[in-house]
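Known limitations

Structure tokens in this collection are predictions and should be treated as such. Users comparing against experimental data should check residue numbering before alignment. To illustrate the layout, the record for YqhG family protein is reproduced below. The input appears on top and the generated tokens appear beneath it.
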Amino acid sequence: MKIDNLHSFLHQFFSISGCKVSEPEANELVVQLTKELDITLMNRPFYWHYMDKIGQQGTPMSLQLSTGGSQIDPKKEWIHYGSPRLHQIFQYIQSQAEITLLYEALNIKEKTALFPWLVANLKIEYIGKQKKEEIHSIGLHLINGTMINHMMTILENVDLKEIVSDYSYTITPIITPSSGFQRIFNYLEQELAKKDYSWASQAMKALEEELNLLEHFFSDQENDRELYDNEVVRLKERLEPRIKMNIINAGIFYLSEQTMSKILY
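Generated tokens:
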């Protein structure tokens, strides 16, 4: 996953969450947080408790984020795959546990159909000797089954709102959201099957070496069997190769045929 996809993902996340977002430079986001995200991300419980106690609104903080490939400016917070800030954002999104429903905003004077897309943002974790994460944003057309990557990046340029515009009407999905999720999972599993899995072999080799050392160390210590078993569990949790796939968030987006043609062609 390229770093610019992370940049687009963050821009979309903060914008949808009601924050003011600007991009003064490439790979930079300046975000004026809402109260809710300040409470979630900035760890200032006493400040907000005090503001509530004295009946004041309070002033949310702002973030100056760098999404480039490395830390360049120490005055900007470098956010990247695996950074604590990104994990905070993932946890917040997961805690919301709801599917967004949005419609393309159109300024029209004639009836226009809006077609449903299921959009799922997913995190894939590679767990083994070395850990890695990827973010995928998949869009699935719930009428004809067309599937495309980097959907959130595409939707950045589409004006979306929570109510249907005048003269717009929605087309009922043929593919159900539950079936749509299964198609997306199947697609990602097929893509994962094509990848190089030498990392898994390396992780298994490292695990076997650690288990052999552990067994040798405990071979003459019969009374420490419980401790040995616990250490085996810890080693497997740390080194045994596996892949986890989790939904970060998802939504149904109703888009016009004109916008769809730009996406597909």
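For this record: The chain has two domains: 3-97, 100-195+243-264. The longest strand covers residues 112-127. Please report discrepancies through the issue tracker.
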